[in-house]
User: Fold this.
Amino acid sequence: MINFGSLGLIALSSFTLYAWLTSSSLFKPIIHKQPLFCTPLRVESPDHPINLKRIVAQAYKDKQQISIVGAGYSQGGQTCASQALQINIREMNQLINLNLEEREVTVQSGITWQQLQERLSIFGLSVSAMQSYADFTVGGSLGVNAHGQDVNWNPLSRSVVSMRVLMTDGRTLNTSRSENPELFKAVLGTYGLVGIITEVTLKVLPNTILLKQVDLISTHNYNDYITGLSRDKPLALHSARLSINPLYRFKNLVAVNFFDTGQLAIPEQEDHELNYPDTHYLNLVKKSWLAQTARTTVEYFWLEQNGEMTRNQAMGESVVSLKNTVAGSKDILQEYFIPPDKLQLFIGKLKEWLGQHSYFTLINATIRKVNADRDSLLPYAPEDRFAVVLFINLPDNETSNTRMQNATRELIDTVLDLNGRYYLPYALYASYNQFWQAYPEFKNVIEAKTKWDRAGLLTNRLYQSYGTF
Ligand SMILES: Cc1cc2nc3c(=O)[nH]c(=O)nc-3n(C[C@H](O)[C@H](O)[C@H](O)COP(=O)(O)OP(=O)(O)OC[C@H]3O[C@@H](n4cnc5c(N)ncnc54)[C@H](O)[C@@H]3O)c2cc1C
Assistant:
């Protein structure tokens, strides 16, 4: 049964508090990107592949180590290493070709999803797969083989037709499932450790009108619910937010679905602005127990509304909507990939885990559907999985970071026992043994690195932490 009887009252009192707080000047934006964990030697920002090639050639000559950064939203130093040259790829952000017949777009890897959506929408097209937010670069997303709300095209590699990759020895190679297929696998989702993706050709989709449908359901019915979802109508996007109400934690969830109507959006009517949902309520949840109890009620009855929007609009939210305004605290993300038949068990364990650790606050726990990754050498979902994303607020100091690391290791052990994996773009909390237990395929990445990056120039904190035997 769904428990939202008493939540209504609580929601009302929370609204009053919310209205007062949001009208006050207490909310001042602080940060939304994580600080770097290393000091690069210097940063180079080439705006053309020729300049990039020149920089890499010089580094090769000098035996200078290199890290690559896109939009820089990974949270554990996956884009940098102390004393390494950091190559910022964001200036290489051109759309190179749009093949309307094949519905394929070729872009430079520093383009962001938002920049790409803007250009595609003019032609009535949309991105197939990307993260839940549009601020990331295509290259950085390929570097982690991202996934998002799209249920058919994730992980992102599914939509990749081909890539051009600059090797550290100066060669630029084309790669696809038929041309240099080993390199294709070795570059996708391997955190910039094998080669630098300069261009990519992606499959795109028509920018159709999607019908948004929001459901409040009991969590223990979720597996059946999602199996039945696309029986009658084509499901395009899906995510489900577990109730974080401390009184009935995880009992219910709000499922947000977008069904494809097949009707094309009119390009001129497209709004190119990113969506910036109100950050105030999210920040209130970090501080107020009342707001936590009312969260699901507020979300279902107020924040999420049924309706129609284009695919680009539904996929056009900005991470700015997550901006932390609570002084002295930071937000972190974690994500776990769980076999479908273990999801309910994991949710129970997650609840126990939260009960044992009270110094941080769970702000969001979202479930998404992730398809088996057949492309990357380093798959986080070797088979179909449910991804459970945790958005956590904790005091921004060393003590709480250490406590978070210890707590995370406990949770990773639980996930590994369930034959699941954790996601790598976040804080490097996992122990060395946990990393290797989760990702035994990393030895194949090291082999590929030996072949394609012979001089061993490409590096980052992830590699430095776990990449040695
Ligand atoms: C608020 C927030 C929400 C998120 N939501 C999602 C989500 O919904 N789904 C998801 O999958 N992930 C999600 N993430 C994780 C995020 O997707 C990854 O960190 C992603 O890589 C960010 O893109 P970026 O451009 O910032 O990449 P960066 O952090 O800059 O780079 C990521 C990795 O790719 C490598 N790289 C960058 N460019 C290239 C290139 N041209 N060639 C080769 N390697 C390259 C980098 O070296 C690095 O190892 C989220 C992160 C945050 C902070």
Notes: The domain at 42-206 is CATH 3.30.465.10 (Uridine Diphospho-n-acetylenolpyruvylglucosamine Reductase; domain 3).
